[in-house]
Write a structure and sequence with these properties.
By secondary structure, this protein is an alpha/beta fold. About 35% of the residues lie in helices and about 15% in strands. The two termini are about 40 Å apart. Bound molecules: pyridoxal-5'-phosphate (PLP).
């Protein structure tokens, strides 16, 4: 087999090896089809089976209630920053946004461009986004059209550990970087969106769960492609969907189901994250960015005593086959992204690299 290094990239990110091997094996000719998945029509029976199989696996994995639609869209999570307010905020209405890091900041900024009021219901920016607000800190307006949260802040490495109580106001979540990294209570949300390239599939597809009742809100004037109703009505086949990404997503969903579903995924992710957080906590050298109670299972962020040491760390880690550890340019430091498909051996390798680096430079 070709040698693979450990890929700590925040996204596009590591995929399960078994999935890559299956996709490779079947790339030239899909069994029973005789054509590559890269060549088949999105209107073909073969693709029908792929997209329906993918949806069935997703529904089974996450226990998605029947009154929710599962959509496969394009434009990334970033497009959802605009589609959510365009569809869900009535003219003259407002929405509440909880700002916990760079991604929720972007989401609220886009909502404000739609021309209605997107308010910041709570923000931890003054604390450099080291935590998620507590329920009692949320200043929620009962008249708001919806409340928006970002369940995992990929750049800062903080993750919501609870579903906020919005008192009946529809809750919307950007779950791009922790979707299916742990069980998810879909019934608590009116809409959940996730760009696929962190935890689900290669880049190109965005997964959306939307509750049936909110569809009635979309104004008639919306461009066809930006109206959720279009994609519900045509089952994500209004225009050509990203066929290959959906195919790989189906394989990833099958892999998750075969490996014990979301509870088992969460257990594995907790074990993996603990190895790195323990390495941080047991040293006086590394400093975790997030407060312990809000630490992400997916993106572990930490600092070293100086920026020079951080550069040295990244460069030596890369040489040791640990790739993609440089923190996002806006935050600095180190970020280890350890999504579902990231192997435990890679985390063990990082933890021992950290100990060795501290022994040398600490
Ligand atoms: C990566 C990411 C995005 C942006 O996703 P695109 O698909 O590149 O638009 C948005 N939100 C979160 C939480 C992310 O991690």
């Amino acid at each position: 087999m070709t040698e693979r290094i450990y890929n700590f990239s925040a996204g596009p990110a590591v995929l399960p090896l078994a999935v890559l091997e299956e996709a490779q094996r079947d790339l030239v000719s899909l069994p029973g089809v005789g054509m590559s998945v890269l060549e088949i029509s999105h209107r073909s029976k073969a693709f029908d089976e792929i997209i329906q199989g993918c949806e069935a696996n997703i529904r089974k994995l996450a226990g998605i209630p029947d009154n929710y639609h599962v959509l496969f869209l394009q434009g990334g999570a970033s497009m959802q920053f605009s589609m959510v307010p365009m569809n869900l905020m009535p003219a003259g209405g407002k929405a509440d946004y909880v700002v916990t890091g760079s991604w929720s900041k972007k989401a609220v900024k886009e909502a404000q461009k739609i021309g209605q009021t997107a308010a910041v219901a709570a923000s931890t920016e003054s604390e450099n986004f080291t935590r998620v607000p507590k329920q009692e800190e949320l200043k929620l307006d009962p008249q708001a059209a919806y409340v928006h949260i970002t369940t995992n802040e990929t750049i800062h490495g903080v993750e919501w550990k609870y579903d906020p109580d919005t008192g009946g106001v529809p809750l919307v979540a950007d779950a791009s970087s922790d979707i299916f990294g742990r069980p998810i209570n879909v019934g608590k949300y009116a809409l959940i969106y996730s760009g696929a390239q962190k935890n689900l599939a290669p880049a190109g597809v965005t997964l959306v769960f939307i509750r049936d009742d909110v569809l009635a809100r979309s104004p008639q004037s919306l461009p066809t492609m930006l109206d959720y109703n279009t994609h519900v009505k045509d089952k994500s086949l209004y225009n050509t969907p990203p066929v290959f990404s959906i195919y790989v997503m189906r394989l990833v969903m099958k892999w998750l189901l075969e490996n014990g579903g979301l509870e088992a995924a969460e257990r594995r992710n907790q074990e993996k994250a603990k190895l790195i957080y323990d390495a941080i906590d047991s040293s006086g050298f590394y400093r975790g960015h997030a407060e312990p109670g809000d630490r992400s299972l997916m993106n572990v962020t930490f600092r070293l005593p100086s920026e020079d040491l951080e550069k040295q760390f990244v460069s030596e880690a890369t040489k040791a086959g640990l790739d993609g550890l440089k923190g996002h340019r806006s935050v600095g430091g180190i970020r280890a992204s350890i999504y579902n498909a990231f192997p435990k051996e890679g985390v063990e390798a990082l933890a021992s690299f950290m100990k060795e680096f501290e022994r040398t430079y600490g």
